[in-house]
Amino acid sequence: MKKILVIEDEELVRNNILEILDTVDFRVIGACNGGMGVQLAEEHLPDLILCDVMMPELDGYGVLAALRNNPVTATIPFIFLTAKGDKTDIRQGMNLGADDYLTKPFRRKELLGAIEARLIKHDTLYQGYTREPSRAVAPVRDLRPERPDSLYYDQLTNLPNQLLVREQFDPLRDRTSQEGGWIAILCIGLDRFKRINQTLGHEFGDRLLMEVAQRLSQGVRRGDILARLHTDQFAIVLAWGSDKGDRRSVSALQDYSSRSTAKPLPEAIAQPILDRLTQPFCLENREIFITASIGISIYPQDGEDVDQLMKNAGVAMSYAKQLGGNQYQSYTPTLHSESLDDLTLETSLRYAVERQELQLYYQPIVGLEEGNIVGAEALVRWHHPQQGMIPPVKFIPLAEQTGLISAIGEWVLQTACNQTKSWQAEGLPPVRVAVNLSFRQFNQVDLSERLVRILDNSGLDPRYLELELTESILVQNVELTICKLKELKSMGVKISLDDFGTGYSSLSYLQQFPFDLLKIDRCFVQDINTNATNAALTHAIIQMAHSLNLKVIAEGVETSEELAVLYENKCDNIQGYLFSRPVKAEEFKQMLQEGKRLDFQPERVRHLTE
């Protein structure tokens, strides 16, 4: 199989070329810059190289010069890709040793034809030399049937792709501007589509995307552009002219700029799209429900070019997803500022561990039988050098979205185990440390091996480590989860179910999973002394847990009255501000040294509950 290296800094163009070449059974390799391209060429010795001319740092000319000066890569056929048709540029490339050039945009047939010609010529010239002879290349007509302009169309849905949107936007903008018109871009993202692929498979997901494309096409008029941008993202470009006969004329958009109470036209179009997508899809005798999020940007107030408008529509769409999805949001500069802040924060977060900006705080867990500290929950905090203490509610979701939560979670585990062992080495009363596992962490294939390594490095006895899991993690794949939990328990660690009652809890789940502890969420504990419903639910949870031989920890205990009710209901442990806020390691150590206890008297507790 022929190997072709594509060196192109524009991701969309690179991916489209790779996709086309993959359909004709080439082995394809992609490089996003010139330096990487030279490295991959030397490592893989491809049969042909396609290389963009204009790239930052090392451009196409530099790549070609480097490869021609290396005897190993000197004879590899090299085709330039250029958006410029200037003869001087073409001559410069040929003088450096390029074999051919293609002017962007080019058609699929032109691309494959150029590749075929170069490979055949190379085989004729170099067959019998030190490089392995190549197989004969099938003529273009014998390859898989091509679709016209397939470089500009999505292979799955047959919709235009982002390249075609870019090409058609400038003429549309010029024409609309001359007419005094407007353009709106709607960026449509399917909510939680990844879960469908993971659960039902990519083939099913592809069929669903084709159905989605069909429904979207029913909501656009002739002259609008409907395109597929990425895996689960689509775009609609809507144009209004000044023609009075245009049902979406300029006057129809006056409400948008004047901020009147009438619904702006793009938003009036967005809601029917959402409604249409929420109708069930019937595929393979299965009924599937999906939702979408839509971001809206308007030319010219939200951007002068297509890239800026698409980016701003994407920012608005991301905000709609953050709000829970199944809604639309129009772009505002405030959203861009928040998005930029998140991007800056993400960059800082990537360095937070190695720069030792993360800290662990410990919130004591107290046993109600004697009032002693029996453990602590390890909670990560981020002290940013410029912004100060950043609350977990802001950076933990960002860490989960970017995948950084795995590295942070492993650091938390190692640090908590090291600290707990250190306290024991100093002769302090042994306590158990509880650490939350994220969804990504729990689903790591080598989680057990990582945990063994962490415990070995720290020297901590596994019985003093407690792993906290939320219900949403457990129910993704019940059978696999049970096997993994049993594997963890066989190591000697404790397993607790965190935030019980806020997700999918049922008695059947509690019976299946090998838990040791159950943590009652603070929403049930709050005002338990005055809220009869919370009191009844908490009482039932404690009784149910004890019947299954589970210990119970009540979170968020803040008042003596709440404590009294929990004590009367025979709750085993509590944690909350009534005893202590989360504190630094040194402060928690001092609590252990001083033997700090919960200050309560059973007689007084009974009085409070009467």
TrEMBL record:
Residues 342-596 form the EAL domain. Pfam families: EAL, GGDEF, Response_reg. Residues 3-119 form the Response regulatory domain. InterPro entries: Biofilm_reg_signaling, CheY-like_superfamily, EAL_dom, EAL_sf, GGDEF_dom, Nucleotide_cyclase, Rev_trsase/Diguanyl_cyclase, Sig_transdc_resp-reg_receiver. Residues 181-333 form the GGDEF domain. The modification 4-aspartylphosphate is found at D52. Keywords: Phosphoprotein. This is EAL domain-containing protein. It comes from Laspinema olomoucense D3b.
